[in-house]
Write a structure and sequence with these properties.
This protein is α/β, with parallel strands linked by helices and 325 residues long. It has two domains: 196 residues, inorganic pyrophosphatase (n-terminal core) (Alpha-Beta Complex); 119 residues, Diaminopimelate Epimerase, Chain A, domain 1, CATH 3.10.310. It has eleven helices and twelve strands. It has a six-stranded parallel sheet with strand order 3-2-1-4-5-6. Strands 7-8-9-10-12-11 form a six-stranded mixed sheet. The mean pLDDT is 95.
């Protein structure tokens, strides 16, 4: 029997009400939805008088440290020593595959909350909603229909970051009526859109801007004008004085070119490994491409790791993309 999103949300609420101690994590290199949804859920659980803590495998960009509660997030490569016995559940936010967490969360009481196509349904509870504009909006649905905790300003800001960043500040095709209804609720609760936009979009580090400049020098567009690629060598990070978190958003510049249907940023991990981020305009499914290499995401935004050097990975990726566009 197929479980509806609301039925799954009810199961999540029952698990929260029955438990006392919870752990929250998300995917590696966490973005606004990963952190905003997790911190929003953490605050709701704490308002119920229960314990909740969030930890992630990798660090995150300077702008996201403005999310209320972000300073409490533990960045570590290991789960707590008392996991899983001391926890009533671990929530994996926005992770279509369990490996995306970077942790060995299984076996354990996993609650999988996600909106990605191709989710592997690996949790004891799988709250999956493919129509949700963001996982933070799913947390809102969970609260609105089942937990019914009043949303304070700090919670509203965290969930608004999730919603705004995953919809591209209401520019992407997942900007549905649900997205605007959620935004209205969060603004009424105290989130200020202008403030969030200012520290997400206009608080870049100097290193990130220098890194963007270096990547733009590698911009390559196929002769038909439909595929744009950029490369990020390991040397670029040192040359720009940047960190891995400063790569966020670079791939979107290729997508912004008129006529380009797919943009890809290829990041050199080592001599044999390349990490790929892809963004697509409507009509092109880059999630299908990412899945060829064990990756995933959305049709319009996906990533994967290719087991080959940077130059070889670019040639292979462009060949595959040319077949689908």
């Amino acid at each position: 029997m197929t479980t509806t999103p609301d039925t799954a949300a009810l199961e999540v609420a029952e698990r929260i009400r029955a438990g006392r101690n919870f752990l929250i994590t998300s995917h590696r290199n966490p973005d606004g939805d990963a952190l905003g949804s997790g911190l929003g859920l953490q605050r709701l659980i704490r308002h119920l008088g229960k314990n909740a803590r969030m930890q992630v495998r990798d660090g995150f960009g300077h702008a996201l440290h403005n999310i209320p509660g972000a300073s409490e997030v533990s960045v570590t490569d290991a789960l707590p020593a008392d996991y899983p016995n001391a926890y009533d559940a671990i929530f994996t936010m926005e992770c279509p595959e369990v490996e995306r967490t970077g942790y060995q969360v299984l076996p354990g009481p996993v609650v999988n909350i996600d909106h990605h196509l191709g989710n592997k349904m690996y949790g004891e509870i799988n709250y999956l909603d493919l129509e949700a504009p963001s996982v933070g909006e799913m947390v809102m649905q969970l609260n609105r229909n089942h937990l019914r905790v009043p949303i304070d300003r700090e919670t509203a800001v965290a969930l608004y970051v999730s919603l705004a960043t995953d919809t591209g500040f209401f520019r992407y095709h997942n900007t549905t009526l649900r997205a605007f209804e959620a935004a209205e609720e969060l603004v009424r609760a105290g989130a200020v859109p202008g403030d969030v936009s200012l520290w997400i979009n206009e608080s870049n580090s100097r290193g990130s801007i220098k890194l963007l400049g270096l990547c733009l020098t590698t911009l390559d567009v196929t002769p038909d004008g439909k595929i744009a690629t950029m490369q990020l060598s390991k040397a670029f990070l040192a040359d720009a004085g940047a960190t891995p978190e400063d790569t966020e958003g670079i791939v979107n510049y290729g997508r912004s070119i008129d006529g380009v249907l797919v943009s890809a940023l290829l990041k050199e991990i080592d001599d044999k490994t390349t990490r790929v981020s892809m963004r697509a305009k409507p009509g092109v499914d880059v999630q299908a491409v990412a899945s060829m290499f064990g990756g995933g995401g959305h049709k319009a935004a996906s990533g994967c790791t290719m087991p080959m050097p940077l130059t070889q990975a670019k040639a292979k990726l462009v060949s595959i993309l040319q077949e689908i566009v």
